[in-house]
Design brief:
The chain has about 290 residues and is an alpha/beta fold. The chain contains twelve helices and nine strands. It has two domains: about 140 residues, no CATH class; about 140 residues, Protein-Tyrosine Phosphatase, Chain A (Alpha-Beta Complex).
Amino acid sequence: MYYRRKVLLALLQTWGGILSNISFQKILFLFCQEQEKPSYTFVPYKYGCFSFQSYADRRALVYYNVLANDNSWHKIDNKDYYSELEMSDKKILYNLYDKYKNFSQKDLIQHVYIHYPYYATNSEILYDHLTETEINAVIKNKNLTSCSFLATIGYEGLSIDEYLNKLLCNNIEVIFDVRKNPVSMKFGFSKQILKKYLNKLDIAYIHIPQLGIESNKRKNLKCENDFHLLFKEYEEKVIPTNTQYINKIIEAFNKYNRIALMCFESYHLSCHRHKIIEAIVKLPSWSNKILHL
């Protein structure tokens, strides 16, 4: 079992085996804030801090009959997961329980919203739990930037929640997926589930496979010159025959002002997306900012 799933179960075990969805997310969030290397990353969502990865793990644990398939976090096996935690995490969990064991769900919401206001910026229940002064503190943490830029982003080395946070922190409104085949062994980055998560955060998703590179052309890349030849071919053959899709990106930029091209590689120069950017920058009408997230 993945260690992070043991963290989920040990936390649940410590709180008596059952917690509401909202309370569990708040407690897991507080636990992860104390870890040197957090087991989960969170995004600001409907009820505050939320981890899409934790819910994917929850579904797996329901499948394996470790959690109940109901509208809560409900541990139904008898295994002791606390004993399997690293000593540092045992200490964090012990102290966490001592501090928050008597907190109601409302107490947890208020505590997290006040002390971690960024994670309350998309909350639908904000006005039910905070004072006007506290609400204003949350609003100050919301990215309201209206500046225009075209960005690129790769998800290599990122969890789905880390990736989504990058988009939110930069107020990205539209993602253009320029992978030929938008599938991934990494959770959250295959087309349909990625589109679902982006839409939940009011970020539009558009796939343009015509601007991708066939996967078989990437299989034998071994050195810098191999990449150079691949991108040269892409620049000479793919870009000129797909100008309508370049125009589609520009049209979206003119409408939304903050859009991003996505692919896998974290470094943009190791990815064909930089050639798309170069083609756009060369256009006489283009004079806008480019960011590589």
